[in-house]
Design goal:
50% helix; five-stranded mixed β-sheet; Cytochrome p450; alpha+beta; 402 residues
């Protein structure tokens, strides 16, 4: 297990050789530092994402004590209240009810109608980058695009958007392995501030509904007149913002860093923009923005003869699964024409990313704008990778135009 070390900068920089070693050694491995069972192969990860013996939470069936776990510290409560009422960390029947109600407002038609806005915004951001002769692709294109899109969808005024990305980054710090107390304190502060802001916005939308997603979620109800509670509304809005742009931001910069390291593939993409859809999928696979996803074992399972007891935690290695040679031919090779590409970057099963269609629209729009409006885009300096393992991204990506 020495090869797998999520706190080693060398591993974080390139975890894929260690994943290959894990896959070669077996289908499941106990990792003592985090007391988790690592699952590195695509077939197992795909199956476990759909296995109802596992759950994102256990509290719908067990107390912390019954499950052999310790309750979170009371001082972390604001984060857990916010996190635990979002559908990503709920199981049926609550997950089913919330996802059904959110889906009434977050429809494929709603997402499709955003295409012109996303495309126009991507063009404007890239035009600004070109006018300046280059800059940081992360802060000037990758970040502002998805933040603006989800804020526009939610109905958050432009004047209120500056704290959204910092709040999101601080909250998402808790999804790393063994977060520090300082990380937890920042997440708690961000949870309180973000929740307070949304509570006021929801109150305003109740009085004067608009065409935005928050108004739609307030109005959404089913035949039993079941509605989202205020906490569910707040948690859902935060989840849509965090998941809806963290992955897109990191997929954008990870993707362009991969393209710069593979100039032949970048040249092919520049020569044929019809490759954009398959390029988006391949870049999501090649350097996966979410490397690990956790599940609790609610009922004992067995993987390749290894019994994993109730109360254990499974860590599904998305990055490893997306490089499994049993599924992907030459997985370490970037191939923008890859036709058979069943990557699991958007998860699977009941927790499949509800925002996946929007993420694809955003990634394609920014890629198209950069190819068309900055055809001479080059790397200005090698980037520094963020120290995070679970959410994989760069500190920045310095580029030049001209």
């Amino acid at each position: 297990m020495a090869a797998f070390d999520p706190w080693d900068p060398a591993f974080v920089a390139d975890p894929y050789p260690a994943y290959a070693e894990l896959r070669a050694r077996g289908r499941v491995h106990h990792y003592e530092p985090t007391d988790q069972w690592l699952v590195p192969r695509h077939a197992d990860v795909s199956a476990l994402l759909r296995d109802r013996r596992l759950g994102r939470t256990y509290q719908h069936r067990f107390t912390h004590e019954d499950f052999g776990r310790t309750a979170p510290p009371p001082e972390h409560e604001p984060f857990h209240t916010l996190n635990d009422h979002g559908m990503l960390d709920l199981e049926p029947p609550d997950h089913t009810r919330i996802r059904r109600l959110v889906s009434k407002a977050f429809t494929p038609r709603t997402v499709e109608q955003l295409k012109p806005y996303v495309s126009r915004l991507a063009d404007e951001l890239v035009d600004g980058l070109v006018a300046r002769g280059g800059g940081d692709l992360l802060t000037e294109v990758a970040e502002p695009l998805p933040v603006a899109v989800i804020a526009e969808m939610l109905g958050i005024p432009e004047s209120d958007r500056a704290p959204l990305r910092p709040w999101s980054a601080d909250i998402c710090g808790m999804y790393e392995l063994s977060p520090s107390e300082d990380t937890a304190a920042r997440a708690v502060r961000a949870s309180n501030e973000f929740s307070s802001y949304l509570r006021e916005l929801i109150a305003a939308r109740r009085k004067e509904p608009g065409e935005d997603l928050i108004s739609g979620m307030i109005a959404a109800h089913d035949e039993d007149d079941d509605r989202l509670t205020e906490q569910e509304l707040i948690s859902t809005a935060v989840l849509l913002l965090n998941a809806g742009h963290e992955a897109t931001v990191n997929a954008t910069v990870n993707g362009w860093w991969a393209l710069f390291r593979n100039p032949g593939q970048l040249a092919a993409l520049r020569a044929d923009h019809s490759l954009i859809p398959s390029a988006v999928e391949e870049l999501m696979r090649y350097d996966t923005p979410l490397q690990l996803f956790e599940r609790w074992v609610l009922d004992e399972i067995e993987i390749d003869g290894t019994v994993i007891p109730r109360g254990a935690e499974i860590a599904m290695l998305f990055g490893s699964a997306n490089h499994d040679p049993d599924v992907f031919a030459s997985p370490e090779r970037l191939d923008l024409t890859r036709a058979d590409n069943p990557h699991i970057s958007f998860s699977a099963g009941i927790h499949y990313c509800i925002g996946a269609p929007l993420a694809r629209i955003e990634l394609a729009a920014s890629m198209r704008a950069l190819l068309e409006r900055a055809p001479t885009l080059t790397l200005a300096a090698d980037p520094v990778r963020k120290p995070n393992f679970v959410i994989r991204g760069l500190e920045g990506l310095s580029v030049a135009v001209g």
